[in-house]
């Protein structure tokens, strides 16, 4: 008498076994920094490896990726900050992928294309409140900031002149993701925000030069590193293959074309 197939499948699922198609795509949750770049690299990887679809979902932040991978809910994630000693002790391993400049961007009606580092610090401290005071339109400035633990804000504090101990104005909106910051600046007249640079950003908002330098110019003062995290105890062969692919020539060309600086692994 043949053993019915259904009980065996059910038993396998209960024990945590599954085949590749049942497992679904290789999910890479985490930061919004560099999401367009990683999606493009993921699409290229899947084109070269059709049996391994890659999904790069909307941002849940670097912290969300750490929780997901450390808690064994995902085998791989994306973050835009260094791992803490506590996170390393949990077995997390970081592989850098791309250096992404930290850009400032404004609503087109602000009528500014360049600011000094002092002017941008004065805007975010609340000392300057109208665009006309920095050469723009006679329009009230509406500041969009990020939460204190945001990776781009941390990089600005570490590298942008005047930002180390800058107290951000209380008259501001806190965006919880990069996408929210960009969308708010796109939609709200007079607004200014910051986030990781990508070539697509300038199609949505006006990216400003700082001290005469565009985000992609040599010597631009501020950038964040986005990379992938995994645990050696849970990483799969598919995840290892994707991590290796992000350091290859094809991924590097994609990243460069989208405004990032590839990092050799």
UniProtKB/TrEMBL annotation:
SUPFAM superfamilies, A to Z: Periplasmic binding protein-like II
Taxonomic path: Bacteria, Pseudomonadati, Pseudomonadota, Alphaproteobacteria, Hyphomicrobiales
Organism, as annotated: Alsobacter soli
Residue ranges annotated for the PBP domain, each copy included: 20-246
Classification via Pfam families: PBP_like_2
Source organism superkingdom: Bacteria
Keyword DNA-binding part of the UniProt annotation: no
Name assigned to this protein: Phosphate ABC transporter substrate-binding protein
Signal peptide segment: 1-22
Family matches, as InterPro entries: PBP_domain, Phosphate_ABC_transporter
Entry keywords, A to Z: Signal
């Amino acid at each position: 008498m043949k053993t019915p197939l259904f009980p065996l499948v059910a038993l396998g699922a209960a024990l945590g076994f599954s085949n590749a198609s049942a497992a679904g795509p290789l999910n890479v949750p985490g930061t919004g920094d560099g999401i367009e770049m990683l999606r493009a690299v993921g699409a290229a990887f899947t084109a070269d490896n059709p049996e391994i679809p890659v999904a790069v979902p909307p941002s849940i932040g670097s912290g969300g990726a750490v929780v997901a991978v450390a808690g064994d809910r995902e085998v791989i994630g994306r973050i835009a900050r260094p791992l803490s000693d506590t996170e390393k002790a949990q077995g997390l391993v970081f592989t850098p992928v791309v250096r992404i400049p930290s850009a400032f961007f404004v609503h087109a009606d602000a009528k500014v294309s360049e600011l000094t580092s002092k002017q941008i610090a004065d805007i975010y401290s609340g000392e300057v409140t109208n665009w006309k005071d920095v050469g723009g339109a006679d329009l009230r400035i509406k500041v969009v900031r990020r939460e204190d633990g945001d990776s781009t804000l941390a990089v600005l504090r570490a590298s942008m002149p005047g930002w180390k101990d800058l107290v951000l104005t209380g008259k501001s909106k806190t965006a919880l993701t990069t996408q929210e910051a960009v969308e708010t600046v796109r939609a709200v007249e007079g607004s200014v925000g910051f986030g990781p640079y990508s070539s697509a950003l300038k199609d949505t908002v006006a990216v400003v030069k700082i001290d005469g330098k565009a985000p992609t110019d040599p010597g631009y003062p501020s950038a964040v590193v986005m990379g992938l995290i995994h645990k050696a105890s849970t990483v799969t062969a598919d995840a290892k293959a994707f991590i290796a692919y992000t350091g290859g020539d094809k991924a590097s060309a994609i990243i460069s074309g989208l405004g990032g600086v590839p990092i050799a692994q």
